[in-house]
Design goal:
Radius of gyration: 23 Å
CATH topology of the largest domain: Alpha-Beta Plaits
Mean pLDDT: 84
Strand content: 15-25%
Distance between the termini: 78 Å
Largest sheet: 5 strands, antiparallel
Number of helices: 3
CATH architecture of the largest domain: 2-Layer Sandwich
Number of domains: 2
Helix content: 40-55%
Order of helices and strands: HEHEEHEE
Amino acid sequence: MSVKKSVFMRLSFSLIMLTAFTIVSCAQKGSKPDTTPSKTAQTQTLKMSVDGMVCSACQASVKKTIKSLDGVKDVEVSLENRNAIVTFYPNLVKPEAIQQAVNKGGFTAGKPQQVKQ
């Protein structure tokens, strides 16, 4: 009987520890600082060439890469024109960071040029 009790105690302890780790992990994910820009924050738009795109999957990859950056509001990527037009919050992301993200994604981003709004 003591063997069954020992196994039961170990399983119970393991289950309690697993639950505790899960709760702590979820609580840490929820404590991410709010980087949502206010409605009065000014946006900027830039245009940059993107070389290396050969298909619509490449186009989608570039768009997903840029859109994943904090501070990017909107992205349009043209396979035909081989460029990207990005609307972003300059207080949250810099043009150089957008360019570097595209380059890290396996494409070659040209120098970002500001588009007049």
